[in-house]
Write a structure and sequence with these properties.
The complex is a heterodimer of chains A (about 160) and B (about 180). In chain A, about 70% of the residues lie in helices and about 0% in strands. Chain A is mostly helical and about 160 residues long. By secondary structure, chain B is of the alpha/beta class. In chain B, strand 6 and strand 7 form a beta hairpin. The chains are: A mainly alpha (about 160), B alpha/beta (about 180). At the A-B interface, helix 2 and helix 3 of A face helix 4 of B.
């Protein structure tokens, strides 16, 4: 009798654990799926009637032994990539996936070009202000000039 | 001057992008079922619960599937158009009574007029899921070979009917 009781308890407990595991798996899966009715909510969060139906459908598929990927395919076949919060990379979604990086690269190019133009302009200004007409003196000329000044003080 | 042209060009491009974005309707999710075989069903008829109608029975003719329910508010908006379409007798319309109670559906048809060749009952919405239904009313155009050719999401409009659906139906009927 005791043994039977223990066996029943064990069976119930393992069932509960299996159910909890399934619940956790479904919860995670449903968070990656978009509700078609309240479009900014996941299937897990939505109270819409259709979301209820789809959660029921997803659970039935999972119980029937379908993998997460197969369940997603089931929904995509009916509602399109729109149901996935994580859309696949393909030619129609290139703009979505790579657009931000293209913009970033464009911004970097503009930033670099503006910076270069500015620094060139500044060094041009430097030249105008300090370089004597006729170009900078060579070191030899400078030494010669210094000697001249030493030999013939200005006063 | 060159810089002004560039800035102005960028501004106009951005404006165009935003203008296009505003024209789009995010509620309309394009159906992946267009150009694919219509998902098969065989459902009990609303008026004759003893009899069934399936997609197989409609093979060989162009037909419309209109998803409706007595609880659906915008179904009332498109209903006069369907009644008119039925009078013109151009194309058979099958009604899919979606997630509705039979009595409520029958009462609704008695009150508003019944434009359908016949209606079938999808009480739990299971067939609706197969057809990718997410916002009632929806209307599908199915060709002779049983392929879905067009889907109207939301209520039919006179414009959609005249400019898209009827011309499509005519060309499908002739092919």
């Amino acid at each position: 009798m005791k043994r039977l009781f223990a066996a029943v308890l064990l069976a119930v407990a393992s069932n509960v654990i299996a159910d909890a595991a399934l619940d956790a798996r479904l919860r995670k899966l449903e968070e990656e799926l978009r509700c078609l009715v309240c479009q900014n909510q996941s299937l897990a969060d939505s109270n819409a009637g259709l979301a209820d139906d789809l959660r029921r459908e997803v659970r039935a598929l999972a119980v029937a032994g379908k993998s997460d990927e197969e369940i997603k395919q089931f929904l995509v076949a009916r509602y399109g990539d729109f149901v996935l919060y994580n859309p696949p990379v393909k030619s129609t979604t290139w703009l979505l996936w790579f657009g931000p990086f293209v913009l970033l690269a464009g911004g970097a190019v503009v930033w670099w070009a503006v910076g270069r133009r500015r620094s060139r302009k500044r060094s041009d200004d430097d030249d105008d202000d300090f370089r004597p007409p006729g170009g900078a003196p060579t070191p030899e000329q400078a030494v010669e000039k210094a000697r001249e000044l030493l030999d013939n003080p200005l006063d | 001057m060159k810089r002004l042209v560039w800035t102005l060009g960028l501004f106009v491009a951005l404006l165009a992008l935003l203008a296009i974005g505003l024209q789009l309707n995010p509620r309309e999710v394009p159906s992946p079922l267009i150009g694919k075989p219509a998902p098969a069903f065989e459902l009990v008829q609303l008026h004759k619960p003893g009899q069934k109608l399936g997609t197989a029975d409609m093979k060989g003719q162009v037909w419309l599937l209109n998803v409706w329910a007595s609880w659906c508010v915008s179904c009332r908006v498109e209903h006069p158009l369907l009644v008119e379409l039925a009078k013109a007798n151009v194309v058979p319309v099958i009604g899919l009574n979606y997630k509705d109670k039979n009595e409520a559906g029958l009462a609704w048809l008695a009150q508003n007029g019944d434009p359908y060749r016949l209606s079938v009952v999808d009480a739990d919405g299971r067939v609706g899921i197969d057809w990718g239904v997410y916002g009632v009313p929806e209307t599908f155009v199915v060709d002779k070979a049983g392929m879905i050719r067009y889907k109207q999401i939301g209520p039919l409009t006179a414009e959609a009917l005249q400019q898209k659906i009827l011309p499509l139906v005519r060309s499908l009927q002739q092919s």
